[in-house]
Design brief:
The chain is mostly helical and about 475 residues long. It has helices spanning about 5-10, 25-40, 40-55, 60-70, 75-90, 95-110, 115-130, 135-145, 150-160, 170-180, 180-190, 200-210, 215-230, 235-245, 250-260, 270-280, 285-295, 305-315, 320-330, 335-355, 355-375, 380-390, 395-410, 415-435, 440-455, 460-465. It is elongated.
Length: about 475
């Protein structure tokens, strides 16, 4: 669990610090000390001693100095400050808890084992000493949020019981977000009154929704956040993305115009989403310009090439669509089966406009490649190829593709719903091919016999087999 250290150091310190020792009143006095501890430690120590002398009776000040030592990774001195508070404030439970929280933070930052156990024990003590200090609970939960979610929920429940007014759901959402647990972050943020979330947590709520592909929710959050914090570009950016994903293209265009007018460089994904919005509005030429702008922003991007191909297809310009589809496939080593199917479909579209033989053959050759590249989808691929062969007037070839499906799936002991569908379709087509096309009922019967077991009500199978 070595990653625990980095999870804790990077995210734990982001917990709200309303009750921690680093009070604003000490910040001006501590800032030069922190700077000097880095640049000239000896002089920094002299300044720290003067600070201690001035604030020796104030536990919050001493703990603030301890936190300053922690920022420069002087763990021994940070721990010394915590111990000083513990020794001098034995009856002050609030100060005692804050001191244990600082000791926990020290262990979290310097944790060598990576399991967070040392820090957790201090946070647990803080929870016990002062049950009204929320930071002990929040830090304790932060340690275990990835390795023991049940314990985290129990800790939050205890916090709710002891501090009912504490905004636990918002803080829990923030904590889970910091640990990349977007599902739990979203779940907790969704419990909050959105009007009470600050700007940072609204952004985290929005990002969590996008990460989970909850685009309808994301769009609502972006709309709310964008109105409340109009200068925050994230609400406009992710509002654009979410509007496109929900096919709210007019809204997407409005978000795009607002976002692109904001300061800051826009990335290829932003321009691509704007292009997709314009495609949805059937403003194809403008969309292609945006996709090209995405390629200017990132010449290594591949999605803009696919989207240009798609747009030319919608415009009926198959040759340009083919050009960009081939560029996309050549550049994207992770192209999936649907990407190849899109290329094949362009040839099918060309075939339907003329030169059927050559273009249908090219489409079928792509489907043949797909079977090799994506063997797990062979039955789906052969089923589509069979349909294209039939369109091309090559019924014998279509029957061969359907036979491949029967050969692959016909003897399987168990089939998924999709596989069952592919097999039944192939059996129906082969039955019809031999009975209807070849006038050979004997050849058709084995297929209908197999089909009737899968679909006892199939009319053609019943007729071929003499079943009333």
């Amino acid at each position: 669990m070595k990653a625990m250290k980095y999870l804790l150091v990077g995210a734990l310190m982001g917990i709200s610090v309303s009750t921690m020792a680093q009070e604003v009143e000490f910040s001006k006095a501590l800032a030069p000390i922190a700077q000097e501890l880095k640049a000239n430690p000896a002089n920094g120590e002299k300044m720290a001693k003067s600070f201690i002398k001035e604030y020796k009776k104030d536990p919050e000040a001493i703990l603030a100095l301890g936190s300053t030592y922690l920022t420069v990774k002087n763990y021994d001195k940070a721990n010394e400050m915590a111990d000083m508070v513990l020794e001098r404030n034995k009856k002050n439970m609030k100060a005692q808890a804050e001191a244990y929280i600082l000791k926990g933070d020290i262990e979290a930052v310097k944790d060598e084992s990576g399991n967070g156990g040392g820090a957790a024990s201090h946070y647990a003590t803080a929870m016990s000493v002062d049950p009204k200090n929320p930071q002990g609970y929040m830090r304790y939960a932060a340690i275990y949020r990835k390795i023991n979610p049940t314990l985290v929920e129990q800790t939050y429940a205890e916090l709710r019981k002891n501090i009912p007014d504490f905004p636990i759901d918002a803080e829990a959402g923030h904590s889970f977000f910091s640990g990349n647990k977007f599902d739990k972050a979203f779940e907790n943020f969704a419990k909050c009154d959105i009007n009470q979330l600050d700007e940072g947590k609204l952004v985290e709520y929005l990002v969590s929704a996008v990460q989970l592909n909850k685009y309808a929710d994301a769009l609502k959050i972006a709309d709310f956040g964008g109105k409340k914090f109009s200068k925050n570009a994230t609400f406009a950016q992710l509002g654009l993305w979410s509007a496109v994903e929900t096919e709210s293209f007019q809204a997407a265009e409005a978000y795009a115009n607002r976002y692109l007018a904001m300061e800051g460089e826009k990335n290829a994904t932003d321009h691509t989403y704007h292009g997709k919005a314009l495609v949805g509005l059937q403003r194809y030429e403008e969309a292609i310009q945006k996709f090209n702008k995405a390629l200017e922003a990132n010449p290594e991007a591949t999605e803009p090439l696919a989207r240009i191909s798609e747009t030319y297809t919608k415009m009926g310009q198959e040759d340009k669509a083919l050009e960009y589809s081939e560029k996309y496939l050549a550049k994207n080593k992770n192209a999936n089966i649907l990407d190849y199917a899109n290329l094949a479909q362009i040839y099918v579209n060309k075939a339907e406009k003329g030169d059927k033989v050559a273009n249908y053959e090219k489409a079928l050759s792509i489907y043949d490649q797909m079977v090799t590249k994506f063997p797990d989808y062979a039955s789906w691929t052969n089923g589509i190829a069979a349909g294209i062969a039939d369109k091309a007037g090559k019924e014998d070839l279509g029957a061969q593709y359907n036979q491949k499906i029967v050969d692959e799936l016909g003897s399987k002991a168990s089939l998924s719903d999709n596989q069952k569908g592919y097999l039944m379709q192939a059996l129906r087509k082969l039955g019809y091919y031999y009975w209807g096309e070849k006038n050979n009922l004997d050849a058709a019967k084995p297929y209908y016999e197999q089909l009737i077991k899968l679909d006892p009500e199939d009319k053609n199978a019943k007729a071929a087999l003499g079943i009333e």
